[in-house]
Amino acid sequence: MSGFVSEENILLNQQATTKEEALRTISDAAARIGVADDADAVYAAFLTREEIDKTGMVDGFAVPHCKTDAVKSAAVIIFKNAQPVEWPSLDDKPVDIAMALLIPDSEAGTTHLRLLSKAAMLLMDDNFKSKLRESDDAADLAATLNVELVA
């Protein structure tokens, strides 16, 4: 998965006021950068997944994920919001950073599970969370993710 995350996948200084607005921004970005061919289908897949269980983790992080044929190739999009938004989470705190996983239906049992497992492990690492929270350099964040996702 080297080179998996590009600078385009890093959305900095966003201004969402709700979880839904954040997911819409991520979905639109996925279509804009060529990860998906239908932003509305991606957004609907995110919302469907959010109805199943919370994707908010702890310390202001979330891992929203979707599986849909609208996604052309597996991707990770980082969404950093200017202020935390309400987002059901394990620690009942709002979220300001989302590590969104977008997976084609055909990779539901393989890439999806590997990425979800890796994302959960990374978000238990205080050093990784600090790096993600403190950096506003899209190239640096993409490089860090590319190293960490294949480690």
For the residues shown, what is the average pLDDT?
A: 91
Separate helix tally: 5
Span of the ends, CA to CA: 10 Å
C-alpha geometry: globular
How many individual β-strands? 5
Q: Biggest β-sheet, characterized?
A: 5 strands, mixed
Provide the gyration radius in Å.
14 Å
Structural class: alpha/beta
Helix content: 40-55%
Order of SSEs: EHHEEEEHHH
Point out poorly predicted stretches.
none
Portion in beta strands = 15-25%
Descriptive overview:
Helices cover 41% and strands 20% of the residues. It has 151 residues and is α/β, with parallel strands linked by helices. Strands 1, 2, 3, 4 and 5 form a 5-stranded mixed sheet that branches. Helix 1 (19-32) packs antiparallel against helix 2.
Describe, in short, the structure shown.
This protein is an alpha/beta fold and 151 residues long.
Secondary-structure blueprint of this entry?
Blueprint: E1 10-14, H1 19-32, H2 39-52, E2 61-62, E3 65-67, E4 75-85, E5 95-103, H3 111-122, H4 126-134, H5 138-150
Helix pairs in contact: 1-2
Short descriptors:
151 residues, alpha/beta, single chain, 5 strands, five-stranded mixed beta sheet
